[in-house]
Amino acid sequence: MKSNFRANLYAINDLRYENAPIPECMEDEVLVEVKCCGVCGSDLPRVYTKGTYHFPTVIGHEFAGKVAHDPKGELDGKKVAIFPLLPCFECESCKQGSYATCENYDYYGSRRDGGMSEYIAVKRWNILAMPDSLSYGEGAMCEPVSVGRHAVLKLDIKKGDKLLISGAGPIGIIAGQWAKSLGADKVYYFDIDQRKIDFAKSIGFEEYTEGDEISCVVEGTGHSEAIRRCLKAVKPAGRVVLMGNPAGEVNMAQDTYWYILRKELKLFGTWNSAYNDVQNDWKDSLTAMAEGKINVKPLITHRYDLSDCNAAFEMMKNRAEFYNKVMLVMNGGDENE
Ligand SMILES: [Zn+2]
Ligand SMILES: [Zn+2]
Predict the structure, then answer these.
(1) Given Cys at both, which of 101, 126, 146, 152 links 178, Cβ 3.0 to 4.6 Å?
(2) Which class in CATH covers the domain with range 6-141+296-329?
(3) What is the pTM of this model?
């Protein structure tokens, strides 16, 4: 019988690479043979500090693969990306198709078993067929690409806009690519890690220096000091989208708050991504990657076999090497690379 190795989190600091039976597929599910699963920044606190909602949980919410079995026989052999959120379909948000703000959702890779697994049964509703030209690595990047798109769309980018992006990790870089594709003139970055700035520069972006003209901001860190710098940098009537998920308290000094008032700034929040018939960041992200508008290939700086999941997490925790996106590969991995 085939194996179903997976990265199962039993407790904080206890991520086990173990075998398990291949899951049964319900009528409304398809069985996916996972090829690539990205390690998200949010997976680090899951493994090392905060844990998951219950133990054990197979983590991983940025994954793509090949359909191994579709009970309806429609998707067999297809390359697919997976929207990891399972909405309740009953609350006010869900009735409006705003699934990201669902009051009672489930989630592959945090609240239920996710994608760091050779096989996973996924609800048909969450499956997106990928353009054939895309690699599985690109499919697994559809989550951060969609999150970046969702944030940038809040800014209503116009030709000539000059953006400041705080945080040059995967989603920050992707947000910059979206902004450029929407007509932004310049995209500047700041980050406490100079290696990340250097990386952004190596793929055509610029480093922010105080005094650069800024009309829009994507704040991607959730740190008080970064928020202050952003609000200071943006010009009057500028637009700011707050995207970074804070690790702790966020504080604002009086003069920081004054920037919002005195410059009449427009502040937006963004959370996750849209996945409905009116706005579907996921479908648009797959299309944009296939058309080359968004290029995530240079962002995948590391690939580890799933069996080396602990080494991947250790490297990231210790920042032993510069990385942008770390990908776990399995079942032959990203054969299109
Ligand atoms: Zn993520
Ligand atoms: Zn809901």
Answers:
(1) 152
(2) alpha beta
(3) 0.96
